[in-house]
Design a protein that fits this description.
It contains 6 helices and 22 strands. It has 473 residues and is mainly beta.
Length: 473
């Protein structure tokens, strides 16, 4: 029969105790079946998946009943598969145990499911980041509110339904459905969705490396509608490829068009189809705050305009990151990201590089426009404090009655470069090296949440304190 031993010290979402200190399986099997060099998988059991369908879990395994596994590498093989199940991000923790009898293995994966339905109130700042919001004179009117509803693991099949109803300064109505895979092997999936967006203000120009904002109290200076549908090919949670087709209709007000006639090429309205293909190889030990492993992503998008005056655009993107344990409580991370945007002419709205989705830390107050960019980020983290899991007394539900908490001290160096031969109006940051260094405190806690506070100094001699809600590399 299966052993009932489970390590109580494992922590959901915290990589080192969860994945780097698990050598007991190898030694246990060697004692049970010392004369065998190869072992046959007899039984695979799953415990704790009350909502999650077993086929979702089996699809992540690279072995099945009847397969033969090498005894010498069994521990590493079981751990790699346990990590894949954990990185579905459906469970607080996943544990593995195996016993051997007469050369035949019985393998048990035990898990604690998360809470899957999240109605989250929206109360957010209507700007790129906290620093940009502080720079606005009407900052207290630039608030968004509403409700964001996510149903993860819908039907127990790792599907996701997302809905947004956002009012206030920026209005947004969205509905998306994502199914990573259908069938026994769960290889082919789909994604569909629709979004409608309006805002009372629009950043229509870049001047002195900062966005120039136009506010319109009556009507909306910007409206966007898009629908999307796509196919997913998924080998495991670590290797995914997606092909999407989306239709976009966008319109700016006449007031914005007069201020920047090249915001869109061809007039204040545009429609286009976009075809995008992307592939991700994610071999990090955990996805929320990775400490070991690697990540690679490549993508290409082709945008074909249905309105006159706008030539087609091809965008190439790539990203690679590496994470390594340095010994003790020290970890190293390095990431390289790049973009190349090809087209005879592009409008202001498409001429975006750093300061939007990606940035050199320390330049949060600025945007650097351009077609092409490269970004290199490095950091060393030290695990400063690991509290394990706090138990919340009086709450019986195991999905929410314990809170993991880990603190990391992080030092970092970022460097970037944006190529923009047409930079004008005092925008001095394109076409020159950008760099910054800093010190940060990273908090890893409940449901893969990561909070960071970072102090940075850039090569312009400017200092700043910045808040973020994800792992920067």
């Amino acid at each position: 029969m299966l052993l009932s031993w489970y390590p109580l010290s494992s922590r959901a979402g915290v990589a080192p105790p969860d994945s780097l200190r698990r050598a007991t399986t190898d030694s246990l099997i060697q004692v049970q079946c010392p004369e065998y060099t190869a072992l046959r998988v007899g039984t695979i059991l799953f415990v704790g998946n009350k909502v999650t369908k077993e086929q979702v879990l089996r699809a992540e395994l690279d072995f099945h009943e009847g397969d033969t596994l090498a005894a010498a590498s069994l521990g590493k093989r079981l751990e790699a598969n346990r990590r894949r199940i954990f990185n579905l991000q459906l469970f607080h923790q996943v544990l593995v145990q195996a016993v051997c009898r007469n050369g035949e293995l019985s393998i048990l994966y035990s898990m604690q499911e998360r809470w899957y339905t999240f109605p989250i109130p929206i109360f957010s700042l209507a700007d790129r980041n906290y620093r940009s919001w502080l720079d606005r004179s009407d900052r207290w009117r630039r608030i968004d509110y509403g409700v964001h509803v996510v149903r993860r693991n819908f039907r127990g099949r790792n599907e996701q339904v997302l809905a947004n109803v956002q009012l206030g300064f920026n209005r947004k109505y969205e509905l998306f459905y994502e199914a990573p895979g259908y069938g026994r092997r769960r290889r082919i999936g789909v994604g569909v969705g629709a979004s409608f967006y309006q805002s009372h203000a629009l950043d229509y120009q870049t001047l002195d490396n900062r966005l120039v904002n136009f506010r319109q109290d009556v009507g909306f200076p910007i409206q966007r509608l898009y629908t999307t549908a796509g196919i997913r090919w998924r080998r495991t949670v670590q290797h995914r490829t997606a092909f999407d087709v989306s239709y976009h209709r966008e319109q700016i007000s006449d007031s914005v068009h007069r201020r920047n006639p090249t915001y869109y090429l061809g007039g204040p309205k545009r429609e286009y189809l976009e075809f995008s293909l992307s592939s991700i190889l994610n071999q990090r030990n955990t996805f929320a705050y990775p400490l070991t492993g690697r990540y690679a992503e490549v993508g290409i998008a082709y945008r074909s305009f249905l309105t006159n005056g706008s030539p087609s655009i091809v965008t190439l993107r790539a990203r690679y990151a590496r994470y390594a344990a340095l010994g003790g409580s020290f970890y190293y991370s390095m990431g390289i990201t790049g973009q190349a945007r090809l087209g005879r002419r592009i409008g202001y709205a498409d001429n975006r590089a750093l300061g939007y989705d990606r940035l050199v830390r320390g330049y949060d107050a600025y945007v650097i426009d351009g077609r092409h960019y490269a970004l290199v980020q490095q950091g060393v983290s030290y695990r400063l404090f690991d509290a394990g899991r706090f138990r919340l007394h009086g709450i019986s539900n195991p999905k929410i009655n314990s809170i993991p908490l880990v603190l990391y001290l992080n030092t970092f160096v970022d460097a970037g470069y944006v190529r923009n031969p047409a930079a004008t109006m005092g925008n001095t940051l394109p076409n020159r090296p950008l760099a910054a260094l800093g010190l940060g405190l990273h908090v890893v806690t409940y449901y893969d949440w990561v909070f960071t506070v970072e102090a940075a100094r850039n090569v312009e001699g400017q200092n700043g304190l910045f808040f973020r809600t994800d792992f920067p590399i």
